[in-house]
Design a protein that fits this description.
Radius of gyration: 20 Å
Order of helices and strands: EHEEEHEHEHEHHHHHHEHEHH
Largest sheet: 9 strands, mixed
Strand order of the largest sheet: 1-9-8-7-6-4-5-3-2
Structural class: alpha/beta
Number of strands: 9
Helix content: 25-40%
């Protein structure tokens, strides 16, 4: 066991919120496709500059069933130093695929196909949210092809769908109180509902019929149509992904950018849970750098409490905690996020 390397970055919330991250992904952006052996056409968006072999990184979006575009802005800030390759996973918005092919092992094969197409001996992977499970699965199958991992608010390497595997959680945290953790998560979502209710009321989206309705029972989508319904959805989306949903207009993605069908197909695959069981051992075996960036109010691991204990077990792990940031930590603390990302990439890419 090694001592955990923990960095906590604190930035003035008002100062950070006034700053817009560096603009759209690089001037030299290129869009193209690669075809896998089953005929699925995968969309790729590539931007930035690579000074050397270790300076190309592949971004793995969340989901399952999301797409890449919400990561363009937060990762554009490092494209003066790195070539960043984004792609839509199979079944996602720009990469339609038959339901029968939506399997984790297919996703791993797609990522390997992309690596070969790019002509890279090794890859540095930047993964967000559920994209972590794809990164771990790729690492499990192709450990020699991974130079390093940068994990942004990712799920634990023993998260199958609804939460952590309690038995494996106790391996890293023997006295963990799973009931207390579950209650803390429920309290977070109760408070989230209250925030949504307050913002909806301020925006004129809370009809009299819903005043006094408990926040956990509030369904703004059922009482609005068209523009107001979209606004209500975006407020709820922002509340889940940030500490303060006041900046809900800045949230990107959602609705048509997400396919629940992809997640459903992944989770109903009989081999999926067996595959997930191999992810934690794969991460433990990895000798390369693993850099984790987490917000203090990221709903996946509030605090965070679990990820620092995971990092402690890794051969070369470190975590940076961003105060006042949520699941999309770049929205809560853009300056601190950029600094953490640059540091993480420099270490993960071995530069």
């Amino acid at each position: 066991m090694r001592a955990v390397c923990l960095t906590v970055l604190m930035v003035c919330g008002a100062c950070a919120s006034d700053r817009t991250p560096a603009g759209a992904a690089g001037d030299a952006a290129e869009q193209w496709y690669f075809w896998t052996d089953d005929g699925v056409r995968h969309y790729v968006y590539e931007a930035g500059r690579a000074a050397g072999p270790g300076d190309t990184v592949i971004a793995i979006h969340g989901g399952w069933g999301a797409e890449h575009s919400y990561l363009l802005r937060p990762l554009s800030t490092v494209q003066d130093r790195y070539r960043v390759v984004f792609y839509d996973q199979r079944g996602s918005l720009r990469t339609p695929a038959p339901d029968s092919t939506i399997r984790l092992q297919r996703f791993v094969a797609d990522l390997e196909h992309l690596r070969k197409t790019l002509g890279l001996e090794q890859v540095t992977l930047v993964a967000h949210s559920m994209g972590g499970n794809l990164a771990y699965a790729y690492l499990n199958q192709y450990p020699d092809r991974v130079r390093g991992l940068v994990l942004l608010g990712t799920v634990y390497p023993f998260w199958a769908g609804g939460g952590p595997n309690i038995e494996l959680l106790r391996e890293i945290w023997p006295d963990a109180d799973s009931s207390a953790l579950a209650e803390r998560n429920r309290a977070f979502f109760r408070e989230l509902g209250q925030r949504v209710q307050q913002i909806a009321d301020r925006e004129g989206l809370l009809p009299d019929s819903l005043r006094g309705v408990p926040a956990e029972s509030l369904n703004l989508m059922a009482v609005h149509r068209d523009r107001d319904r979209t606004r209500a959805w975006r407020i709820q989306f922002a509340a889940v992904n940030t500490c303060n949903a006041d900046r809900w207009r800045e949230m990107e993605g959602g609705q048509a950018f997400y396919s629940q069908n992809v997640a459903n197909n992944i989770l109903r695959d009989s081999t999926y849970h067996r595959s997930v069981a191999a992810l934690w051992p794969a991460l433990l075996r990895f000798q390369g750098p693993v850099r984790v960036i987490y917000g203090t109010c990221d709903y996946v691991d509030l605090g965070p409490e679990i990820w620092p204990r995971i990092v402690e077990r890794l051969a070369d792990g470190a975590i940076t905690v961003l105060q006042g940031a949520g699941h999309s930590s770049w929205l809560g603390q853009p300056e601190a996020f950029e600094a953490a990302l640059r540091k993480a990439l420099a270490e993960a890419a071995g530069r």
